[in-house]
UniProtKB/TrEMBL annotation:
Leader peptide range in chain numbering: 1-24
Originating species: Methylobacterium soli
Superkingdom, natural source: Bacteria
Name by which UniProt lists this protein: Fibronectin-binding protein
Alphabetical keyword list: Signal
Length: 122
């Protein structure tokens, strides 16, 4: 199993087993470490999450100066998001990591590879 598939399986398993008492991330400022899903494509950046209603959120990533805007539904423990940047779009799943941050998997629409991010509170 590739590292991405293993990571994705772990995220899914974690989402299915997350307890109601988990430390929710939610609105705030975060640092991001991630990979585009291939060796040598690691990156760092930041993410701001703003809660826009009881179950909706706006996400703004800054990755190496590239800006991504997203919208998510969820309960702060698990967020299902869509995002766009300069004509590209994709989807992401963010799952609370029990430490105030998230583990995330994501993919651009039409791509076959999946990226991942570790998102930590600032």
């Amino acid at each position: 199993m590739t590292m991405i598939k293993t990571f994705a399986a772990g995220i899914f398993g974690f989402a299915m087993c997350a307890s109601a008492t988990a430390f929710a991330g939610g609105a705030g400022n975060y640092s991001v470490q991630g990979s585009n899903g291939e060796p040598g494509t690691e990156y760092t950046g930041s993410l701001t999450i703003a809660q826009t209603s009881k179950d909706t959120f706006k996400l703004n990533w800054n990755i190496g100066g590239d800006k991504y805007t997203g919208y998510a539904v969820g309960d702060a423990r698990i967020l299902a998001a869509s995002f766009t940047s300069e004509g590209s779009s994709g989807t992401a799943l963010l799952v609370d990591d029990d430490a105030g941050g998230y583990k995330s998997i994501w993919a651009f629409n039409g791509e076959k590879r999946m990226g991942y991010e570790l998102i930590k509170p600032k």
